[in-house]
Amino acid sequence: MAQGCADVQLAPKPIRLQKEGSSPKPNNSQHLPTHHHQTPSISQTRDPTAHHKTFQPRPPGSGPTPTMTTPHSQPPPPQTHIHLAIICALPLKADAITALFDHHWDSSTYTKSPHDPNTYSTGTIGRHNVVLAHMPGVGKASAATVAAHCRASFPGVRLAVVVGVCGVVPFRPGHGGGGEEEEIVLGDVIVSEGVVPFEFGRLLPGQFVQKTDSVLDVLGRPNAEARALLAKLKGIRGREALRGKMIGYMEVLRGNKGLGAVYPGVAKDKLFEATYCHVGEKISCEDCGCDEGKLVPRARLEQGDAQPEVHFGLIGSGDTVIRSAEDREVLARKTGVMAFEMEGVGVWDSFPCLVIKGACDYADSHKSKGWQRYAAATAAACMKAVLEHWVPSLPGASCSALLPEMFADWHNQSLWRSRSSLPALGVG
Ligand SMILES: [Zn+2]
User: Fold this and answer.
1) Ligand 1 mean position to 361 CA, how many Å?
2) What's the rounded mean pLDDT across residues 326-335?
3) Would the pTM count as exceeding 0.90?
4) How far is the CA of 288 from the centre of ligand 1 (A)?
5) Gap from CA of 282 to ligand 1 centroid (Å)
6) Residue 204 lies in a domain
7) Do the domain assignments include residue 356?
8) Is residue 366 situated within a structural domain?
């Protein structure tokens, strides 16, 4: 969740999903999606009433990837065969994700652990049986509660993906091609190579109230399996494949009018100089008359390149609302983070996790909500593209045999991060 994006609830437009399948009792047989060798296979979104279309191969170059689904006669998998959890805040983000489900299971098939108040959607994305946990609110506390209950109810979950929107650092020196400056524009997606939790206080222009006594003494990174996945995706071929898939899924989401996943336009991607603050009380810079002479030019936008890119790096996570470009730059310089969000650190305590967030604003005083829906869509599209590359070492029920090893690795990371500290990074 972008800092400051959290406090506005956009009224979600209803989305008609394909009808949920029948829900016989789970059994112990192998339950993997029947279509996982078909590429790509994505959910029915343009014609939600036709919930059993047959996959039709398309010739190369025949246009955007169509929305489709395959007949799915198998019953829902046993509860322990669901090995991927998706956690997101706000209905508009969940809408973009469920729109990319390949199949939907009847979630009433599954039981919940005692006192679990969560609401879940279950289904498949590619080869994965997934459970989407709907968060009642935003922030790390809500995320932590949801994740803890989800872990109790779905003990087979091996990886959680936290999906949503974030505020970003617009430039990363030395990370672009040839060691040049890397530009991050709105709608780009950030994939976490690590999560830096922090509670420094509230960051406002000209007023930085620091709470050094509450700085969480941790620095987290994904577990070994997730790091190996990221290493593959960061390569040239991996990036190209990821970007191509992501653009295809964005076509699907754009076709669903209820999602509002349309690119707002280069002219609406405004980055002001870090020292120039929002001039009025209203949210819109246009309404307040912010000086466009203070806008910072970006090469990608001047070239008219509006396609979202994927960036890999550290993400700052906490309840701190960042509305100051100058402090954004200080934090980026001292911690190396390239984005700020509010849920990842909460989930980290329950699951090994990846954070995948769409750039919604620049974490400055000019931020608005205009990019929320598009950024939520690019993050969802990127999530599905990333998951296509994640091959669990043992799928389905057998994966539970690896759980102790997986969680041991995750636990070791927790110990490692507990020995690290933000002050050691120069913060505080
Ligand atoms: Zn402004």
Assistant:
1) 12
2) 87
3) no
4) 7
5) 9
6) yes
7) yes
8) yes
171-209 residues labelled b (16+ CB within 10 A) or e (exposed)? bbeebeeeeeebbbbbbbbbbbbbbbbbbbebbebeeee
Q: What is the CATH number of the domain that holds 114?
A: 3.40.50.1580
- Residue 356 Cα to ligand 1 midpoint, Å, equals 27
pLDDT in tens, 217-270: 445 667 788 888 899 999 989 999 999 999 999 999 999 999 999 999 999 999
What's the rounded mean pLDDT across residues 119-123?
A: 95
CA of 362 to the centre of ligand 1 (A): 11
| CA distance readout (Å), 79 to 60, 155, 271 | 38, 8, 46
Domain enclosing residue 226, as ranges = 76-425
Residue 28 belongs to a domain: no
> What's the CA-to-centroid distance between 366 and ligand 1, angstroms?
4
Query: Cα separations (Å) of 209 from 77, 324, 418?
Result: 50, 12, 24
Res 349: pLDDT: 77
User: How far, in Å, from the CA of 364 to the mean position of ligand 1?
Assistant: 9
Higher pLDDT, 56 or 243: 243
- How many structural domains are present in the chain? 1
